[in-house]
């Protein structure tokens, strides 16, 4: 049973003076069990609209969305989901601990489990010290951390996170990436939206690129990174750079020779280098990044 199945989803909002905004147009997507799926798109692309539909917060104009085979509004579907909304807001007169207790009760957790799991997620999100203070005194990043903590509290099988790294400092961003990787290790499924391509490259199995309410591409991240290799940046020493003059030109740097070897000539380059007692000091693939691909797609849409 796939955790997420979206078929032909459309959503139109009625804007000011009755003007209709088509926020989603015929979007279909399946996310498999254990997958980390990144949902990437510019501002106003339709990411939050998709996510709100998925968690049953808004109704689609057309199409269907199912979580673990059940319609998204159904309680049985929601119980398996941890959800971080965009810009989470809380009853700010509560403390984080009180809020988590409330969330635990909503999810039907036992009292003991609420205490131990609250402690776990507060510690994970570095909120233990602040846990007994009212949320109204929290910074923006602390509110975001609490948003993530409440999504993780009942150990759900599917996490739906709308820009989880937003508003976090570099330590917090790294922490969230690690949490996503750990969730994957435990066999959980994670669906998250972001604007940050490096975050997708770091943690996602697949990425969906959305623009103007339409899914423009769904890509396997490792395929993009692999197929994108255009050549290799190398630094060598120990042999004459003239040996390679027929297809590459070297620059001298600190006693090394550096160049970019085209992908197709990599093997020949290595063989010639080693046959002439040369040594590799540094080598790095030069890839067409996901960023370049993303910008091309967005360029075509606009
Ligand atoms: N409640 C609403 N009423 C009218 N229009 C809306 C409403 N919510 C969203 N929209 C419109 O729907 C489109 C998609 O918005 P959405 O919030 O889904 O984008 P997003 O991809 O999440 O953007 P961001 O990266 O800025 O969060 C936008 O044109 C937005 O103006
Ligand atoms: Mg959004």
Morphology call: globular
How many alpha or pi helices?
Answer: 10
- Strand content bin: 25-35%
Number of domains: 2
Q: Assign the CATH class of the largest domain.
A: Alpha Beta
The whole-number mean of residue pLDDT values reads: 92
**What class would the helix/strand composition place it in?**
alpha/beta
Question: What is the helix content?
Answer: 25-40%
Total DSSP E strands: 14
**Low-confidence runs of at least 5 consecutive residues:** none
What is the name of the CATH topology of the largest domain? Rossmann fold
CATH superfamily annotation of the largest domain: P-loop containing nucleotide triphosphate hydrolases
Key attributes of the depicted protein:
6-stranded mixed beta sheet, globular, 2 domains, alpha/beta, 302 residues, 10 helices, binds magnesium ion, 4-stranded antiparallel beta sheet, Rossmann fold, Dna Ligase, domain 1, binds adenosine-5'-triphosphate
TL;DR of this structure?
This protein has 302 residues and is an alpha/beta fold. Helices cover 34% and strands 30% of the residues. It folds into two domains: 4-225, 3-Layer(aba) Sandwich (Rossmann fold); 230-287, Dna Ligase, domain 1 (2-Layer Sandwich), CATH 3.30.1490.
Structure description:
With 302 residues, the chain is α/β, with parallel strands linked by helices. The chain has 2 domains: 4-225, Rossmann fold (3-Layer(aba) Sandwich), CATH 3.40.50; 230-287, Dna Ligase, domain 1. Helices cover 34% and strands 30% of the residues. It has 10 helices and 14 strands. It has a 6-stranded mixed β-sheet, sandwiched between helices. The chain has a 4-stranded antiparallel β-sheet with strand order 2-1-4-5. The protein is globular, with a radius of gyration of 24 Å. The two termini are 36 Å apart. The mean pLDDT is 92. The structure holds adenosine-5'-triphosphate (ATP) and magnesium ion (MG). Adenosine-5'-triphosphate is lined by residues 13, 15, 21, 23, 41, 43-49, 86.
